[in-house]
Structure formats: C-alpha cells, structure tokens
Amino acid sequence: MELFQSQYDWIRRTRETLFQYCEGMSNADYLKEIESFGGDSIRDLHVHIATCYHFWLGTHGLGKSIAKTDPSGIKSVGDMRELFRKTDELVQEFLLKYEGNWEHTIPYTFKNGETSDFSTLWLYTHTITHEFNHKGQIVKIGRQLGYTPPDTDLIAPEVNTCQS
C-alpha cells in the first residue's frame, strides 16, 4: 500500500475516535459557539477542517469546482460524518492522482497578487497537519464544556477501527 494512503488511514482512525467523542456530547454543545475560540463551535472547526481539504486538494490539486460548506447546514455529528465521507473520497482521488509524483508543483495566486508554487507533497502535508491542529482545539473545547476526551493521538492506531 502506498505510504500516504496508509498515513491517511491512520488520520481517519483518529477522526473516528473524535467523531465518537463528539457523539457523546449534547447536540447543543456540539453547536455551541465558544467565545475563547473566536466564537467558533466544534461543528465550525470540523467544517473548517473539511473545507481546507476541499480548497487545497480539491480546488487546487485536482482543479475541481467545490462550493464552500456553510457550517449552518451541518446540524449534527451525523451530518459531519457525511461531509467527511465526501472529503475522504476527494483525498483518495488526490492520493491516486499524485502517487509517486509528490514533487509536482501547482501555481497559486494569493489575494494580494503574489504567486507561489506548492508541491503536491506540501498540499497534502498542509491539510493533514491543519486537521491535527484543529483536532486539538476541538478536544480543548470539549474539555471546557465538561467532556473528558479520549486519546486521539496516533499512539496505537491498530486499536482504533475506521469505517470504510
């Protein structure tokens, strides 16, 4: 199996643990905006993670036109699971397209007009590290709301199961 596919499988396993944690919360807490996190909710951070994958891998890596997801359209963890099911399909497509070609560069123009070339390895690395950053914030918000989080690190990925 290709290395980055194996890596993404581990990421999906930790995401599953996080989904299960979120399913143990009240829906009101999942949607609750937390002032200390800029008014974001756990749901909003989850959507932000998915849209990062959509933007960098889908729009720029695969040249797809992907509408930005409005967090208000996601009403539950079940809805979020569906958003990530579609995100996983996008990541799979990206991994298949660029397998063995991780130095391929894709030009990007910033809002200020400056340009840069990003390798497909950079695009993939950015999106997965971005997810783990916000996963930590989600766990922190849950803790602030009174929920004890599970271990969502990659310490024992074989213990977690990922639904295909």
List the defining traits of the structure above.
single chain; 164 residues; mainly alpha; Four Helix Bundle (Hemerythrin (Met), subunit A); two-stranded antiparallel ribbon
- How do the helices and strands follow one another from N- to C-terminus? HHHHEEH
Number of helices: 5
Quick one: how many beta strands?
Answer: 2
Output the CATH topology: Four Helix Bundle (Hemerythrin (Met), subunit A)
Per the principal axes of the C-alpha atoms, what is the gross shape? globular
Query: What is the domain tally?
Result: 1
**Nearest-angstrom radius of gyration?**
16 Å
Instruction: Give helix % range.
Output: 55-70%
Tell me the name of the CATH class: Mainly Alpha
Task: Describe the secondary structure blueprint for this structure.
Layout lengths: L2 H21 L3 H5 L10 H20 L15 H22 L6 E5 L5 E5 H25 L20
Antiparallel strand pairs: 1-2
Describe the structure.
This protein has five helices and two strands. It has a single domain (3-144), classed as Four Helix Bundle (Hemerythrin (Met), subunit A) (Up-down Bundle), CATH 1.20.120.450. The longest helix is centred in the C-terminal third of the chain and has 25 residues, at 120-144. The protein has 164 residues and is mainly α. A hairpin with a 5-residue loop joins strand 1 and strand 2. The chain is globular, with a radius of gyration of 16 Å. It starts with a helix and ends in a 20-residue tail after the last helix. Helix 1 packs antiparallel against helix 4 (77-98), helix 3 runs parallel beside helix 4 and helix 3 packs antiparallel against helix 5.
